[in-house]
Design goal:
alpha+beta, 30% strand
Length: 164
């Protein structure tokens, strides 16, 4: 009886250890560049003059495969490619991210019910190379001087990305 109980406890411990091991994700998924810009720095994103080969769906797949949107978070992909001259800004920085070539932009709200400064991610997927860059921010983005959701009205709206 004691042996069966001991075996049962050991099996339960092994199952718990395996479950925890499979839940732990690396802090920076392979192929991801995480960077926090210094104040006032303008970040150039994209490959100037390159032809776009990565579709919007392909860009979203890269974000999902890397685990950039977790359960409980909300992700949004901008309705069109951003190109040279487009700008992404965060509250207080009018032109923090300067686009140099075709990129897809994904915004991840890590605390969607928070109505104040909180962790969000700006993810840029180079439409010609597929390279993904992730930037940690604290506020929702503006696209070319307009709120992300208002800016998306002219091109079909911002699409929510669901984690399955």
């Amino acid at each position: 009886m004691k042996v069966a109980l001991l075996v049962g406890v050991l099996v339960a411990i092994i199952i718990i250890i395996l479950a925890i091991a499979f839940m732990v994700k690396p802090s920076t998924p392979p192929g991801t560049t995480k960077y926090t810009p210094t104040e006032g720095e303008i970040i150039k994103v994209g490959t100037f003059g390159a032809a776009a080969t990565v579709s919007k769906n392909g860009a979203v797949e890269k974000v999902l495969e890397a685990g950039e949107i977790k359960e409980g978070e909300r992700g949004y992909v901008f309705c069109r490619q951003l190109n040279s001259g487009d700008k992404i800004a965060t509250m207080g920085d009018d032109d923090k991210y300067s686009i140099d070539g075709p990129v897809w932009f994904v915004y991840v709200d890590e605390s969607p019910d928070a109505f104040f400064e909180h962790d969000v991610k700006y993810i840029f997927i180079d439409a010609s190379t597929g390279e993904k860059k992730v930037y940690q921010e604290s506020w929702p983005p503006d696209v070319n001087g307009e709120d992300l959701f208002d800016a998306g009205e002219g091109c079909g709206g911002v699409q929510e990305v669901y984690v399955s």
